[in-house]
TrEMBL record:
GO terms for cellular component: plasma membrane. It is found in: Cell inner membrane. GO terms for molecular function: antiporter activity; xenobiotic transmembrane transporter activity. The keyword Cell membrane applies. This is Multidrug-efflux transporter. One of its GO terms (biological process) is monoatomic ion transport. The chain crosses the membrane at residues 12-32, 52-77, 89-110, 130-147, 159-181, 193-214, 235-263, 269-289, 309-333, 353-370, 391-412, 418-440. Keywords: Antiport, Cell membrane, Ion transport, Membrane, Transmembrane, Transmembrane helix, Transport. It comes from the Bacteria. The keyword Glycoprotein does not apply. It holds the Pfam family MatE. It is a multi-pass membrane protein. InterPro entries: MATE_fam, MATE_MdtK, MdtK-like.
Length: 453
């Protein structure tokens, strides 16, 4: 057990750095899809963007169950309770895979939904074609998340890092072959991208399952996998649903903000997309350490150790604070070069996009601290199995404060694109304050309440 600031920092970095690397690799995989489909066909790129946005929203909701697995396993490990580790993992897999079932009809008949959202018919039809293949990857993707949770909680994070890096490289290669029809393969366009993703998701699920069997035999994770365990099923469900809804509320804030940017114009929307790519990369770093903090807080919770819970949380916030300072400096000192990486030098709208992007990146720099604080604190709260109140906080701050404020600033007060981002900043700051107050005010209660079996 790590104690003291150095011990906490060492443990957090050892656990968190591979998670950060895997999160960044996932972002790079998505960027590769965007780049290659953009090179192939603009309509295909638009369709994939539309389709993936729907897939991701459902994925984030379902991933709440895997986060519950991570939290419950971390606490069980402190009691040397291998039976509970196995029970939680099995029921986490059950819930994750069951969640994917009702998603399939929505993906299969998604064209009417996209048309009702006002999308162009050819884009809506192509997005449905994509989802009729990519939709099946929800099953292995959910399995990967549940297995990744047990691997993270047991601190087997290097396999997550290297597995994700290899997947990112293979994804680029498969896209090149299947989208464009290279090496004698048929040219499949957007369908090729979907097939590549499905293949790699299945391979990833098999890799993590085999690794868990070989490297963690003491937990016997897949014994009687078919047998229901209703008390644990209910526990993972009760903990996982609020986590999924919390993540969905935050993702929804950014998705609806993009819609509002589209109302303003294509230049602000393009600049918004670029700045979102940059802030997402920074966010993934904080998310990796937040996941590590969840495990560390869960261990302290399992020991009923209030002092270690508080000191570990302080070190986690200090580390993420140092990373915030770096990202703020980059965003404020090098805004034009960063935004310019994403814009063709010969694009006639380049100067307009750069001007808007530089302004938005300055606002993004201002709320880096709030964004980092909220994701870290929500990770700590998950570690002590507090999920329902954070869900309410997320819904109120993002949808009750952030989005209305963004609309008022942008359209009522005539601030345009910067108004949308100021609204998002206000929502994130409100969430950070409320979640921080929730955690620090209740650490003693969290650390002394009984574990729920």
């Amino acid at each position: 057990m790590a104690t003291g600031a150095r011990g906490h920092a060492r443990a957090l970095l050892t656990l968190g750095l591979p998670l950060v690397g895997s999160n960044v690799a996932q972002i790079m995989m998505a960027m590769a899809d965007t780049l290659m489909l953009g090179w192939y066909d603009v309509t295909a790129l638009a369709a994939s963007t539309l389709a993936v946005s729907l897939w991701i929203l459902l994925f984030l909701l379902g991933a709440g169950f895997s986060n519950a697995v991570m939290t419950l396993v971390a606490a069980a490990l402190e009691e040397d309770d291998a039976v509970t580790v196995r029970r939680v993992t099995r029921m986490g897999l059950w819930l994750s895979l069951l969640f994917a079932l009702p998603c399939l009809p929505l993906f299969w008949w998604s064209e009417p939904l996209f048309l009702a959202m006002g999308q162009e018919p050819d884009v809506a039809a192509l997005a449905q074609d994509y989802l009729r293949i990519h939709g099946f990857s929800m099953f292995p993707a959910m399995a990967i998340m549940a297995l990744r949770a047990i691997l993270t909680a047991t601190e087997h994070t290097r396999i997550i890092l290297w597995g994700t890096i290899v997947a990112a490289l293979l994804n680029a290669g498969l896209n090149w072959v299947l989208i464009f029809g290279n090496l004698g393969f048929p040219e499949l366009g957007i369908r090729g991208a979907a097939i590549a993703t499905l293949i790699l998701q299945i391979a990833g699920a098999l890799l993590f399952a085999v690794y868990a069997l070989v490297r963690m035999p003491e937990y016997d994770l897949f014994t009687r996998l078919w047998k229901p365990d209703w008390p644990i099923f209910a526990r993972v469900f009760r903990l996982g649903v609020p986590i999924g809804l919390t993540t969905l509320a935050e993702a929804g804030l950014f998705n609806v903000s993009a819609v509002m940017m589209g109302w303003i114009g294509k230049v602000p929307l393009a600049a918004h997309g670029i700045v979102m790519e940059l802030t997402s990369m920074a966010f993934m770093i904080h998310l990796g350490f937040s996941q590590a903090a969840t495990v560390r807080a869960g261990r302290a919770y399992g020991r009923r150790d209030e002092a270690q819970l508080r000191s570990g949380a302080t070190v986690a916030l200090a580390i993420t604070g140092g990373l915030v300072a770096i990202s703020m400096c980059l965003f404020l000192l090098l805004p034009a070069p960063l935004v310019g990486l994403f814009v063709d030098p010969d694009d006639p709208l380049r100067d307009q996009i750069l001007a808007t992007g530089v302004t938005l990146l300055a606002v993004a720099a201002l709320f880096q601290a709030a964004d980092a604080a909220q994701v870290m604190t929500v990770g700590l709260l998950r570690g002590v199995q507090d999920t329902s109140v954070p869900m309410v906080i997320a819904i109120v701050t993002y949808w009750g404060i952030g989005l209305p404020a963004g609309y008022l600033f942008a359209f009522t007060f005539g601030m345009g694109a910067i108004g949308v981002w100021l609204g998002m900043a206000l929502g994130l700051m409100s969430a950070a304050v409320a979640l921080s107050w929730r955690f620090w005010r209740n650490t003693r209660r969290f650390a002394t309440r009984p574990l729920v079996a």
